[in-house]
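S.,

Sequence below, as promised.
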Amino acid sequence: MSNRTTFSRRDFVRSAAVAAAAFSVPAGVLALANGYPSADQALPIRLGLASYTFRNFSRSRLIAFMKQLNVFELNAKDVKDHLPIDAQQESAALADYAAAGIKLHAAGAIYFTRDEDADIRSKFEYCKRAGIGVIVAGDPTPETLPRIEKFVKDYDLRIAIHNHGPEDKLWPSPLDVLKAVKSMDPRIGCCIDVGHTVRAGTDVVQAIHETGPRLFNLHMKDLANFQSKESQVAVGDGIVPVRKMFEALIATKYQGFVDLEYEIHPDDPMPGVIASFAYMRGVLAGMGFTGQG
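The prediction came back faster than expected:
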């Protein structure tokens, strides 16, 4: 990449950040609890946040960060006190999110390590209590899938199997997931993790087209080097083809969320998170789409 191209890209991120700031809501964003829309409501790509991004922070801090970002759609995980497994603690968390105007659309990754009804049922109950429609599943074995399928039918919840790149012996790529589930209930599908997908050597744009109606969730991240897990950067600072991905999602009529999962700088993630949302909103603005504040 030339110096001129690099400068233009970063300059675009700065411009997008200014545009994103125009979407912000003053004084604690209290109006959102009364039904006012977030900045991204009118966009064809629904932007959300994976709570794992703020894994070193409490739920109250997570909520405060989300208000600052003007992002009110959450993919929650049982990390810190974000969405505890315990039913009473989970209820308290749900009350806090509701009071802040935050909606939970997915949970995970939730790991299905045991091929047992009781273990699987407890995880479906956990998501049912939260009113969550998509379970992001980490590493269920192919042998466990028929049992999981039974619960998918009983609970009418969708399972999105998360791929974990070349280190994952079961699901390195979303295309590996697709091969295993294509003849199963249509509520069993994929969560594309963008970083792991490109590291597995899969064209992420092609994967979006191929998974099509079986794509239920997408974890967004960016890399400076497709061969290096440690090269993660803020979205827009790497080489992931964000605009082409958004074009593919729109073309396939994707109905799920693009959830930022920013895994670096866990003790101070906000600068990279702010830049990532600014860039994604800027890309959509460049495509002719604008949100509403």
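The beta strands are 46-50, 73-76, 103-111, 134-138, 158-162, 188-193, 215-220, 222-223, 232-233, 257-260.

Coffee later?
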